[in-house]
Design brief:
By secondary structure, the chain is an alpha/beta fold. Helix 13 crosses helix 14. It has a single domain, classed as Alpha-Beta Barrel (TIM Barrel), CATH 3.20.20.70. The longest helix is centred in the last third of the chain and has 27 residues.
């Protein structure tokens, strides 16, 4: 019998599959299908609360939270942690069996506090109490980099997230190179799908004459560019693709020494059903004509591609980053509204 798609990817390439924002049953299915780790984000509770198999669990968590905390924000953080802890327990056997090389589950709390490094640090330290296989997810902004420096010195495993530009990746990698002692796992994201979505919105709003085929390749092209810079400079960390918006945000990454996190429903399950051939495409040479045409037409692509395209103080306000964060803010507001509703009902 032919092995499943992700098992074949793992057998023939260094590319690895993570699952994003799964329900408990999806997490178990993903592990069976080959997932080695899991990511969650601030919109996690919104997603699982809308799933019939998880709704009752979340409602029970909210009831407990409002009894424990008078602050809606603290109650929301408690609910987020409880939901993520259930997933961490499912992945823990992978972590234990691999002696900590896989089985990680990420968590990120309120996106409304991302400009406060002390709050980021405090949340990360509290999150780590949930389990040995918890990994901190920290935004790669000026404030986030300040927090990452402190947490890395404390030997906290980290996913540097919200990376949409090469300058962000370089900043976090060079920060790690300055550390004198070895540090735990570092995953350096590139949010390919959200970057593509942002560019598509820009092209439509500005009525730019950009070839749709070029737009289709933009995010993955930038991810591969980031990958080669990291490899050529022997930077620490593993590239972690995320924010997928299409099957190609996984399949175009196959072949690289990269990890990619995708949703179970609509992406991972479709790839399993289709069971396409494993074709390593990641090492296809970058197209200079494609890069030049996109950089000429779209200033945001040029800013993302160039190492000096953004200053650290611009990371948080970069258009694709703002779009990504807005999705988290929507999810966190949904959770806060659930908390308020429960508190008002008593």
């Amino acid at each position: 019998m032919r092995e499943g798609y992700f098992h074949r990817v793992h057998a023939s390439t260094p590319t690895r599959f993570w699952v994003n924002n799964p329900t408990c049953s999806e997490a178990k299915k993903a592990i069976e299908a080959g997932a080695i780790c899991c990511t969650t984000n601030p919109s996690y509770v919104m997603k699982v609360h809308q799933n019939p198999e998880e709704k009752a669990k979340i409602e029970a968590d909210i009831k407990e939270a409002v009894q424990r905390y008078s602050s809606d924000e603290k109650a929301a953080a408690y609910v987020q942690r409880k939901a993520v802890q259930r997933i961490a327990e499912i992945f823990y056997p992978l972590y234990e069996g691999s002696q900590g090389s896989i089985g990680w589950v990420s968590i990120q709390i309120s996106p409304f506090e991302e400009e406060d490094p002390q709050r980021i640090i405090q949340d990360a330290e509290e999150n780590l109490k949930l389990g040995k296989n918890i990994i901190a997810k920290i935004p790669t902004t000026e404030a986030g980099l300040e927090a990452i420096m402190v947490l890395a010195k404390e030997r906290v495993p980290i996913i540097a997230t919200e990376i949409m530009a090469l300058s962000q990746a370089v900043a976090v990698c060079e920060l790690y190179q300055k550390l004198s002692n070895p540090v735990p796992p570092l995953f350096v994201t590139h949010i390919t799908g959200i970057f593509d979505e942002y560019l598509q919105n820009v092209v439509k709003e500005r009525n730019l004459p950009v070839d749709p085929d070029s737009l289709f390749q933009a995010g993955c092209t930038l991810a591969r560019h980031q990958y080669w810079v990291m490899k050529e400079r022997s930077y620490p960390g593993i590239l972690l693709g995320g924010g997928a918006r299409g099957l190609h945000h996984f399949t175009e990454m196959v072949g690289g020494d990269v990890h990619v996190t995708i949703n179970w429903q609509g992406t991972a399950d479709v790839l399993i059903q289709q069971n396409p051939p494993v074709v390593p495409r990641f090492h296809t040479p970058l197209s200079s004509s494609l890069i030049c045409s996109l950089a000429k037409a779209i200033p945001e692509f040029k800013a993302a591609f160039l190492e000096d395209g953004l200053e650290k103080k611009q990371f948080a306000s970069f258009g694709p980053v703002v779009l990504f964060r807005s999705m988290f803010e929507k999810g966190w507001k949904y959770l806060l509204d659930l908390v308020k509703l429960k508190r008002n009902k008593g």
